[in-house]
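batch_manifest entry 22 of 60
target: Rab GDP-dissociation inhibitor
source organism: Smittium culicis
requested by: lab member K.T.
priority: normal
notes from requester: please return tokens only, no post-processing; we will run our own comparison against the previous entry in this batch. if the run fails, retry once and flag.
--- input ---
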Amino acid sequence: MDSGDSFEEDYDFAILGFGVTESVLASALSKAGKKVIHISPENHYGGATCSLNFVDFINEILNSDSKLFSHVEIGIGSFEPLNKSTILAENQASKARSNEKIGLDNNKNPKTNDLLSQIFRKLELNDDFLVDTLVDKYYDIIDSIVSKNNKYCIELLPKLIRCRGDMISLLIDSNLGQFIEFLGLEGNYIISKSICTKVPDTKQVIFSDPLLSLKSRFSLSKFIKFIETCTLNNSLEDSVSEYPTFKSLLNEKFKIFGREFDAISFSICGILNPESHSSLDGCNSFVKYVSSIGKYGSMAYLYPLYGCGSELSQSFCRSAAVAGAIYIMGTEITEISKGDKLKINIGNSHVANVDSIISSHMHKNLISNSTQFQKESCNDNQEDSGNALDVNISRATGISDLDKDTLFSAYFCINDTYSNQSNEINSDINRNILFVNDRCNELDFDNNIIDAKEMFEKLCPGVGFMST
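--- output ---
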């Protein structure tokens, strides 16, 4: 919809945010005949799991209004982050200044110049001559990346899709999988103590891995046999009941530690925190992984060619739009007031009257700040957490090339602002505002689908989920 078109219309649901869970709900509700308006302050799909080209990525992490990032460090030509004090010290030491200001080379890409200027202005370098000097110094490095801007994407929160799982099942059942180009991950590897080896996910790999001791091979084989037997006998829950966490199960029962423990808990089961993950859930994740091998080849994981979160979200949003949902991107809710329905002001000119608002916790502050009532506590079960990620771009084309020169590196923390307990919304209005879990701390999207199904069943009891 054109952001310049004013309107006031009634809807069943307003959905805020283009995360995967919100997008699945938008599609399911629209297909169920509900009138949906889907709004996001961002101009990209995927929410916190979006994929961006290099220029958009830099613009996003440098955006002072962005709610995603709490800390950003950038390095050019090395892993060392740029910082104001180091740059000023180097400049003072060299005294390589002339009275003649460096002029802009007309043959240079203005997009690259602008990007570099933004990076150094972010460091609060107010000396125009110094900024121009730095732009000139690093131009060739950054331009070599910008020139290939549309040939790759940077995924803010990388995730994978198991070949057998809730996400793949939904894509197949809804016929949406045909619109996404997938790439199979032929190998699953783990780096431990600077050594990259294949994950011991089958008996063949276990007995061919030269780094595994005889004792480790026995422990891993014993664990795999245990899972196979318990799954076959349907006795998995009873068999692991005495071990409260997945870590205690692997450590105490099977004596699995170190690299082998990391391989099973993270690379196979996708568990980021095995200390708090139940033993049953961990074993079920292992079963899902093993059952995924062989469905589409030797791999267990699939990956959308242009990024997980963005591609999946866009696919479901398009499905919702075909079913009648209205989409507005790059626009925020500026006010919420209560009457017979919730009246929401969208941007400066749009007004929508909705029965309920469904939002990512990522946009909780936005809703809280726009409600025009005396505020009381809003309860939720989210925990405060943050995600720190490293991105580095080099000339490397494979594992053997990892020693090549680094062109660009970035370290950034993604804030779970949606889990901030200090957010408050009036209890009268809160009954009509529903929050979904972004599941940003998980390796796949299966629980996003489970969450979307559960909320849909509450909102539309007796109606088929994603039925056409």
